Task: inverse folding
């Protein structure tokens, strides 16, 4: 057989390449109360991306160089006025760095610590990727 025919036959038997489904991550509900900025659905969003709210809040506060806290009801309060656009950009950067799998692009990952190294383990493809400590 001809090489080209064999190659075409191989490609015809391969499954279609599928892109990962878009994540069903709800948008952050940002509200400004005086000088404070509150994210109402912070705990729910962290539950969807399977991350501890303290880790996500630590990242955001470090990037903003601000103080903040999470109350019992899951509302994240930043003790300075921050624009909604800035919070959404930082949250997207957090998702790309600490949630999204670098190999397959899935958002179904878990973040675990092995010694001093933080590792993202993908639940879809099984890849493990080290990331910068938070």
Result:
């Amino acid at each position: 057989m001809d090489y080209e025919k064999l190659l075409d036959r191989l490609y015809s038997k391969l499954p279609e390449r599928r892109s990962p489904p878009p994540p069903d991550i709800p948008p952050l509900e940002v509200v400004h109360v005086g000088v404070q900025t509150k994210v109402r659905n912070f705990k729910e969003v962290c539950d969807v991306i399977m991350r501890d709210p303290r880790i996500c809040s630590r990242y955001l506060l470090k990037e903003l160089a601000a103080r903040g806290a999470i109350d019992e009801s899951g509302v994240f309060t930043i003790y300075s006025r921050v624009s909604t656009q800035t919070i959404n950009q930082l949250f997207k950067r957090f998702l790309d760095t600490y949630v999204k799998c670098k190999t397959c692009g899935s958002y179904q990952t878990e973040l675990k610590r092995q010694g001093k190294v933080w590792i993202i383990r993908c639940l879809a493809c099984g890849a493990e990727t080290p990331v910068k400590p938070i």
